[in-house]
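The protein record filed below.
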Amino acid sequence: MSQRRISFFVLKIALMLLLSVGLSRVVFLSVFMGDYYEGMAKGNMVRRVSILPARGIITDRTGKSMALNIEVSGKTFRFYPYGEMLAGVTGYLSRASREDLEKCSKCSNETLVGKSGLEKIYDNRLMGTWGEVLVEESAEGVNIKEISRINPVFGENIKTNIDLDIQKSMFLSLKSMLNTTGKSASGVVAKINGEVLALVSLPSYDANLFINSGKRSDYGGEFKDVQSIVSDNDKKPLYNRVVSGQFAPGSVYKVLTALAGLSEGKITSETIIEDTGEIKIGEYRFGNWFLDKYGKVEGALDVEKALSRSNDIFFYKLGEMLGVESLVKWSETTGLGKKTGIDLPFEADGFVPTPYWREKYSGAKWFLGNTYHMSIGQGDLLVTPLQINRMTAAVISGEWCTPLLVGIKGCREVGITKKNIEVVKKGMEMTCREGGTAFPLFEYGGKIYCKTGTAQQGGEKDEPHAWISVVVPKGDDIKEWLVVTVLVEAGGEGSAVAGPVVKEMMPVLMKK
């Protein structure tokens, strides 16, 4: 046999041996060891399970729950026990959107995030941090053992400045008023130091409707499902009128005009202006409400009586003395035309008009009539109810504070002398006494300070907005005094419509 044939034969034998070994190994593993390895495969499946943290609880200043977690049929749900009464404060939760997930590294598709109110502003603090557990389980899903665990960090509990007694009183009083007049209304109660004790915007909604399978509140309101809430473009229940609504302030603004006149030295407490009933400039007429409604004039007025009677002629003349630049300056000094900084989303700036703005955007020059309108809170001037609340506090105290639902910030002086403050306070005190415009509150005369407002809006056939701002002294520390501001949209006269809302609240306010 040649050497070549011998080599080929040896190679052939070697290949056959290798194939035999490989085949025997396959047979051994599949036949004899198959059950063993199948068992190992079934027992080595590892699953990652996320652990949802309990969301922080929101309470009022006394610890009463405003937003909490409840368990129903083994599942945990967010629950708002006061429903529509507090929706403007608490806001609501909804599943995280794609935009939410991009902003929140610790969120998942199952995460509920705050969409409005305190739930949105303090979402990161309330949410907590997700936990995680790695478990080994069988293919049938039976847990075999826990490999590792990271416990969730529960959300932070948040205590607010809200006083539920005052909140409920304002809510029920406004709700009752809307049953007879107006379509929407809002109100806010705050200490002069900025602590917000109550905040109501109506129409409202039950935040529990946004929680799948959630439990409804006893204060459920008229809306029965989410679709009816989000689709109502007339009542706009999701619209927080206290911070987002912008309205002409009407005569509640006159306290600022009075203060500006005193501070600029244009008038003193002894300055007298004659009520002529009306002022005419060319074809334009500027009348006083007392003449237009009763056909009478009020004679000689000082600033205190002018405030108590809300006399337009006095403030037209004072506005003319001041000029628009001074009105703009003092409006901005007391916080109008800019956000207050409250810890709620979607706050509006309001608007303080200027001659430059008017000429740039309308092509019309500012004339004396525009100053007249601004001096009584009309024209293009726009404010939020919260801004009027803070403006009233600034006029009474001489300090400008940031309104907050949680915590408190420092205040700053706005440059008003105590002497001028006392003059304005006297006029506001007279407003609540016999002969003033706030007749529903006369029984509290000498104990509180008031200013009513009736703000024209829309056309001649539209009812005006009804305003009132009331200061309730609480002890010797003026920063602890309460400021109550109410607006009933298209409600009518401020004294007749907004006044009774505060009157109904007074027993609760006086006790606090």
